């Protein structure tokens, strides 16, 4: 009888299997199950960084700014927008960190709707998002309304419809919940927000490069996210920000800087913002830091986001099958959606005492993610993760749970 949990047939039929060998080796790692926190580096990244230092930085020196560096925030932003965000050119930049961009976007959004005095988010949103929204509300004299959601689920259109009103200026959620992996119905929620006359800001940190996005088609106003998870940009890689084209003419973000000026090199006395999406920029572009992201975007273009999503669902579905067979009978709870349409790129397993298993898991070469109080996140990156790796990692977890 065929073992339905055998990873062999799944890996053999995986059209993206060849990408796995294009990532740098990780000595001693049996199963890397944390791709939703920090993606693995493609092997080519080291070569491309060395080439940049040798040929562009050393070779061209200051001349590099006129040979592509200056436009890198929008050039890479447009590439990212086309491949992963469903965004037409001229609406996305790569810069700053997710926290800084969220602050810029939220601050600018509430200024666009004077007279409205509430921001809506959910109580389970990522701490940074909540911190940013609280800070913007305090700066602008607004209040924050937090919606309570199911910890194993996430925000729904019904939740939002019950929270917005004529007082709402901005609504902000994570498209994929960082704890449960819940995929919000961004299109429906955006419509609810717009029906209330408000603007919506999405955090795409756990979506970009894993779940297909259609920001333009959904009518999304604003979005931000990081590039070091499924986009493999590396630790501290620059984030990306999106502003819908129809908002750009009146968009005024709070962190003014020379790169966001209409004429940066005129050194004029007064600040005049750049036209278009460059007005979201502030300081010198992180040119060197975009090199790893560009390597990853080339791989994503080759694979295709739809194929990535198909494998992601197969990986998370397989992890659920293993969990149901091996772990749930031993007191482990699945705290992620079963419905594939509502499930992102990771699966969360909970059981009291999981924190104590991190050290033995790491010692065995198994690296999941942990979120207090008792959740293990199994983060599966479709281009770098095999089914055999998932099987091996959860086998070790099963052995430790049985002790």
TrEMBL record:
InterPro entries (UniProt xref): Aminotrans_V_dom, Kynureninase, PyrdxlP-dep_Trfase, PyrdxlP-dep_Trfase_major, PyrdxlP-dep_Trfase_small
Ion transport is among the record's keywords: no
UniProt xrefs under SUPFAM superfamilies: PLP-dependent transferases
Superkingdom of origin organism: Bacteria
Keywords attached to this entry: Aminotransferase, Hydrolase, Pyridine nucleotide biosynthesis, Pyridoxal phosphate, Transferase
Protein name: Kynureninase
Description of how the protein assembles with itself and partners: Homodimer.
Metabolic or biological pathway: Amino-acid degradation; L-kynurenine degradation; L-alanine and anthranilate from L-kynurenine: step 1/1; Cofactor biosynthesis; NAD(+) biosynthesis; quinolinate from L-kynurenine: step 2/3
Cofactor: pyridoxal 5'-phosphate
Source species: Pseudonocardia nematodicida
MF term (GO), any: transaminase activity
Catalytic activity: 3-hydroxy-L-kynurenine + H2O = 3-hydroxyanthranilate + L-alanine + H(+); L-kynurenine + H2O = anthranilate + L-alanine + H(+)
EC nos: 3.7.1.3
